[in-house]
Write a structure and sequence with these properties.
Blueprint (H helix, E strand, L loop, with lengths): L1 H9 L4 H16 L5 H20 L1 H15 L4 H13 L5 H9 L6 H8 L2 H34 L5 H42 L5 H6 L1 H22 L2 H5 L3 H9 L4 H16 L7
Helix pairs in contact: 2-3, 2-4, 3-4, 4-5, 5-8, 6-8, 6-9, 8-9, 9-11, 11-14
Length: about 280
């Protein structure tokens, strides 16, 4: 219905521009007071969801994140909060957001370095992956409760208890698969960033003499490799259950030597120490 109305007024595919314009207007309206964001989203959520359905989730994520990115340099922490709320409203998919944050298409190496030096980018990815880890824990707890209920169910409750247990098991499988996808999408994006920046790490003679290039490399490389380690170490139970993903990743495309070494060492860690307190 909305598509028919919009196409009648604006023409084919103009709803993408409507989505962009709507989010730009929302962000302008709430810029002064953060609490207004929830009120605006509750007011327009049905329209936003229809526009996203018409646009497609991946393209819609890019449109919304592009609008947020315009504000990012001036209001980084506010933008992190906005994205977190949009994921809660299911307007944005966390996996698509991480893909966007690690996307370097069309960026110069200097722009990629600048992006990787933004603490808020890493904080948002850490937040989204942490939220996903909490979903895993909640789904497992729900499955445990369902199993206990099924074990003690009376004859009259047996069918319902069995159905709830199966639903809970499917919920665990679904959230684990989403977590697995998020982890390896993040690592794949980190690999592309690391490979791209490593190719330009030599810099000019002037930069080498001043130490500026080496200093910049230390910052982005520390963050890229460190975050890769953190993602694996904090999700050991998920990656251990799919240990073949390590080898598949290393076979799937070019992996720079230092990044490959990091992945191989993490695989060894997962295999040898499954009682890591961070898991």
């Amino acid at each position: 219905e909305l598509k028919a109305r919009l196409m009648g007024i604006y023409g084919d595919d103009q709803y993408e521009q409507i989505l962009r314009g709507l989010f730009a207007a929302i962000l302008r309206a709430v810029q002064a007071i953060l609490s207004h964001f929830d009120a605006m989203m509750e007011r327009y959520i049905s329209v936003v969801n229809e526009l996203i359905a018409l646009t497609g989730a991946e393209k819609a994520t890019r449109i919304v994140m592009d609008e947020l990115w315009r504000l990012w340099p001036a209001l980084p922490l506010r933008c992190v909060t906005y994205v977190d709320k949009l994921c809660t409203y299911q307007v944005l998919n966390p996996i698509d957001v991480i893909n966007y944050l690690l996307s370097i298409d069309g960026l110069s190496k200097e722009e990629v370095v600048d992006k990787m030096e933004m603490s808020s980018v890493w904080e948002l990815m850490r937040l989204l992956i942490g939220r996903q880890r909490s979903r895993v824990q909640s789904a497992k707890a729900e499955a445990s409760n369902a199993a206990r209920f099924a074990a003690s169910a009376t004859e009259a409750e047996a069918d319902m208890a069995s159905e709830k247990l199966e639903e809970a098991k499917l919920g665990v499988e679904s959230v684990l698969e989403a977590t697995r996808k998020m982890i390896w999408n993040a690592i794949g994006g980190l690999n592309v960033v690391h490979t791209t920046l490593s190719e330009g790490a030599e810099g000019s003679m002037e930069e080498a003499e001043s130490g500026a290039q080496e200093k910049k490399k230390a910052v982005w490389e520390w963050r890229v490799l460190g975050f890769c380690k953190e993602v694996i170490r904090r999700n050991t139970s998920v990656v251990e259950a799919n240990i073949g993903d390590f080898d598949e990743f290393l076979r799937s495309g070019p992996v720079e030597a230092k990044f490959r070494e990091t992945i191989q060492s993490l695989k060894t860690l997962v295999l040898s120490d499954l009682t890591d307190p961070l898991t």
